[in-house]
Automatic annotation (TrEMBL):
Listed name of the protein: Histidine--tRNA ligase
Domain of life: Bacteria
Pfam family of the protein (one): tRNA-synt_His
Domain Aminoacyl-transfer RNA synthetases class-II family profile: 14-351
The keyword Iron belongs to this UniProt entry's keyword annotation: no
Molecular function in Gene Ontology: glycosyltransferase activity
PROSITE patterns (UniProt xref): AA_TRNA_LIGASE_II
Keywords, comma-separated and alphabetical: Glycosyltransferase, Transferase
Record organism: Pseudodonghicola flavimaris
């Protein structure tokens, strides 16, 4: 009980820190409607959410995060620009890592502002960094928007690009799809036989499961169309592989990404935004020359991030989850805005982990 009380006290202090920076404090219900939220959170949170059924309200879930309900609130009633802060418990199942807490306190800072995306990114990063001042932490940054732009501009079918976009968050599956679309992976014998059959359903048994016979036929037709499509070119594949391998301090990463943009010109606007963000961070006193950037960073986090992403990690404590994370989620506001949208970026901290690091000095 003492640890919880101290964590809540620290959370209140952090929220006051963000309020002093101009954020409006908000609350969201602990119990949230499950159907829409589970789609927005992505596979990782879907597998870790506590879901229950209510006779009147349908499926409900214990709040796994604040960002989605805060976006819902803002798109329903918020003015522009807006800054919000919040503090409270979130809940996530941890079957694969029982040493991690399944209930913990989160404090956040969210900015909705369409004036200058680079400046808003830098504002959120530096506010979070300021709240963590004095702790032995390492900062990491990335940009999901660059990878999304690279995929969107590939010279291949819309279906292939949609599949790659869907699996950006699952690096192994993404790599397997790339190899398949580039013709590097052999077609499994069972699939080859299926595609070669004049009527794949002729010898099929009774339809079992949720898919109808018509749905199965459409799926086979999609597989045939994919098999007939030209492979992703070697120069595009090499460009993607080079992009995914970028892991440098920010200025060197920018230089390498400019080189990649020669082969993948579709990433140029996203790389321009990265350069603008680097300038905005420097203007706010961040040592960008030593700030880490990894093109693949953030690909196992919340699936609603679509631009700048960042995290703060305890030095020498790989066993601990990140102490703070955040990123840009413009597409989420489109999904929840019924046609309206506003650029948005935010970050969250875990005051319990902050206290633990303070006490141990690690």
């Amino acid at each position: 009980m003492e640890d919880r009380a101290r964590t809540l006290t620290r959370a209140a202090e952090l929220r006051a820190y963000f309020e002093a920076a101009g954020a409006r404090p908000v609350e969201t219900p602990v119990l949230q409607p499950a159907e829409l939220l589970l789609d927005l959170y992505g596979e990782d949170i879907r597998g870790r959410a506590y879901v229950t059924s209510d006779a009147l309200r349908g499926e409900q879930m214990l709040r796994p995060d604040f960002t989605v309900p805060v976006v819902q609130m803002h798109m329903r009633e918020g003015a522009e620009p807006a800054r919000y802060t919040y503090a409270g418990e979130v809940f996530r199942r941890q079957e694969h890592d029982p040493d991690r807490a399944n209930e913990f306190v989160q404090v956040g800072y969210e900015v909705f502002d369409r004036a200058d995306a680079a400046a808003a990114d830098a504002e959120v990063f530096t506010r979070i960094a300021g709240a963590l001042s004095g702790l032995p932490l390492r900062a990491a940054t990335g940009d999901i928007g660059i990878l999304k732009a690279a995929v969107a501009g590939l010279q291949t079918t819309a279906a292939r690009k949609a599949a790659l976009m869907r699996h950006i968050w699952r690096p192994r599956r993404f790599r397997a799809l790339l190899d398949r679309y580039a013709g590097r992976a052999a077609v499994p014998p069972a699939r080859a036989a299926l595609l070669a059959a004049a009527d794949p359903m002729a010898e099929a048994g009774p339809v079992i499961g949720r898919r109808s016979g018509a749905e199965i036929v459409r799926r086979i037709e999609a597989l045939r169309a994919d098999a007939a499509a030209a492979p992703v070119s070697d120069h595009e594949l090499l460009g993607l592989e080079t992009l995914l391998a970028v892991r440098e301090t920010l200025p060197f990463a920018l230089e390498r990404l400019r080189d990649v943009a020669v082969d993948l010109p579709q990433i140029t606007p996203a790389v321009d935004l990265l350069e603008a963000r680097m300038g905005a961070l420097a203007d706010r006193g961040v040592d960008v020359d030593s700030l880490e950037f990894e093109a693949s960073y953030g690909r196992t986090s919340m699936e609603y991030y679509d631009g700048f992403v960042f995290g703060f990690y305890a030095e020498g404590r790989a066993d601990l989850p990140p102490v703070a994370t955040g990123g840009r989620y413009d597409a989420l506001t489109r999904a929840l805005g019924d046609g309206a949208e506003i650029p948005a970026v935010g970050g969250v901290l875990r005051p319990g982990l902050m206290l633990a690091l303070q006490e141990t000095g690690q």
